[in-house]
Design brief:
By secondary structure, this protein is α+β, with helices and mostly antiparallel strands. It has eight helices and six strands; from the N terminus they run βββαββααβααααα.
Length: 291
């Protein structure tokens, strides 16, 4: 199933006074790019989170937001009584009658001892990585749903191209025949004025030159081949990303369409080519969001 690159997922937990919230958002990008936003106490896990996400989401710009709150006994800072006593003694030496605001004393450097960051990260890493995986799974499910809609839209445009291309393929031999008939009529009209007849050999030579210049059989065959390959990719893709391949095929389809347009001197075929190019342009826009 085709998957888009746009998605959102979230997961959260609250255990023993520890609250963790994870949000994962993804948008278009030709490659994989992660932006992991963590609180300072969990910064040491950033690389492991990036690796875990990259195994689940292979393409797109991924933003991981983590909110963390620890109200357990581990999250409560302890008071360094010796440092606090030294501050109080120094204040009394300046003015023994001054009133001390305890809340302000607690904000002084070294008064509160918090848990070492690595200890916080190590203790909460398993739960955090599990939440990241759950959020990424939500993203994948959303990508699948959007990918299904994307696939349906692509199939509509592919069907239009197939229809117009079939018409052009059937029409191509008739163009040469009609040219031969028109050329014969014009030449005969001109030669009749001077009493001469057209040489069949000369006429056939001119028709052969025209047929060679306007031959689009090879371009039709390549464009049809691109259509088949495109359909196989969107119908057969599972976990492997195919977005870049689809984008390349769309560019090739447009190139073949332009070549047919440059060779085509027939009004009906020209109108069909315009429709094909329009459908290819829409396909190119859509596959920009395919993983």
């Amino acid at each position: 199933m085709l998957r888009s690159m746009t998605g959102f997922g979230s997961a959260s937990s609250r255990k023993d006074g520890v609250s963790i919230q994870v949000e994962v958002r993804t948008v278009n990008n030709k490659f994989y790019k992660a932006n992991v936003r963590l609180p300072d106490s969990l910064q040491s896990i950033e690389t492991e989170i990036d690796v875990a996400v990259s195994k689940l989401l292979s393409r797109g710009t991924v933003t991981v937001n983590v909110k963390f709150m620890d109200t357990s006994e581990h999250g409560i800072a302890s008071i360094n009584k010796e440092v606090l006593g030294n501050y109080i003694n120094q204040i009394k030496e300046v003015d023994s009658s001054v009133t001390v605001d305890v809340s302000r004393l607690l904000m002084l450097p070294g008064v509160l001892n918090s848990e070492v960051d690595d200890s916080v990260a190590d203790r909460n890493k398993p739960e955090l990585l599990a939440l990241v995986a759950n959020a990424c799974n939500d993203v994948i499910e959303m990508r699948k749903r959007e990918g299904k809609a994307l696939e349906e839209d692509l199939c509509i445009h592919l069907a239009k191209i197939d229809e117009h291309l079939s018409f052009i393929k059937d029409r191509a031999p008739e163009i040469v025949k009609e040219y031969q008939s028109r050329l014969r009529q014009r030449v005969q009209n001109l030669l009749s004025e001077i009493g001469k007849n057209i040489e069949e050999e000369d006429l056939l030579r001119e028709v052969a030159i025209f047929a060679e210049k306007t031959d689009i059989a090879e371009e039709i065959s390549r464009l049809a081949g691109h259509l088949v390959q495109f359909k196989e990719l969107i119908n057969g893709c599972d976990q492997d990303p195919v977005g870049r391949t689809l984008d390349f095929l769309a560019q090739e389809m447009l190139r073949e369409s332009n070549t047919i347009a440059s060779k085509c001197l027939d009004g009906d075929t020209s109108r069909r080519i315009v429709e094909i190019k329009g459908a290819v342009d829409r396909i190119k826009e859509q596959v920009q969001n395919a993983e």
